[in-house]
Amino acid sequence: MSRLEEIMGYNRQFIEGKEYEPFITSKYPNKKLVIVTCMDTRLIELLPKALHIKNGDAKMIKTAGALITHPFGSAMKSVLVALTMLKAEEVLVIGHLECGMIGLHGDQVVSQLEEKGVAKEKIETLRHAGIDVDHWLDGCDQIEQGVLDTVKLIKNHPLLPPNTLVHGLTIDPKTGELTLLHQDQL
Ligand SMILES: [Zn+2]
């Protein structure tokens, strides 16, 4: 059975057994929070549990490294939509220790893409067109700096509603312990 078939089969049982019932809630975050965090597998259940976040409590935006690097990309758009249409009021940027984005250089990703069959010519074409593929795929030197840069990008965004609190933290992917890097104040 393929991974997808397994998921589809499980899903049928999930629906038939009405296992969704404990999760029913609205689209508005009860705690009025937006959380920008990493896509790391260790945080899927740990982060909500460690923060006492339940289904319906927060808007969760996940990117590699909890990094938002483009002020007019889809991650920042999600933050703005959460703060307006979805009535969130406060943003937490939560990077984590041992993140795969620490020390990652875009050229490493590019060589793996080549190994996976992406033609070198395509990558060269992008470079010639002025798209800095290597830099775009970069991680960060230190996760703390990555978090603070993301906090700064959100906080300084020209479309951020005034008085929005934007905090920066890290989480330990083993214990769930939070470390506060930046506590925003009005
Ligand atoms: Zn990570």
From TrEMBL:
Entries under SMART domains matching the protein: Pro_CA
InterPro entries for the chain: Carbonic_anhydrase (IPR001765), Carbonic_anhydrase_sf (IPR036874)
Source species, domain of life: Bacteria
Any one Gene Ontology molecular-function term assigned to this protein's record: carbonate dehydratase activity
Residues annotated to bind Zn(2+): 38, 40, 96, 99
Cofactor note: Binds 1 zinc ion per subunit.
CDD domains (alphabetical): beta_CA_cladeD
Keywords: Metal-binding, Zinc
Cofactor: Zn(2+)
Catalytic reaction list: hydrogencarbonate + H(+) = CO2 + H2O
One Pfam family of this chain: Pro_CA
EC code(s) of this entry: 4.2.1.1
Zinc keyword on record: yes
Similarity comment: Belongs to the beta-class carbonic anhydrase family.
Official protein name in the record: carbonic anhydrase
Organism annotation: Thermoflavimicrobium daqui
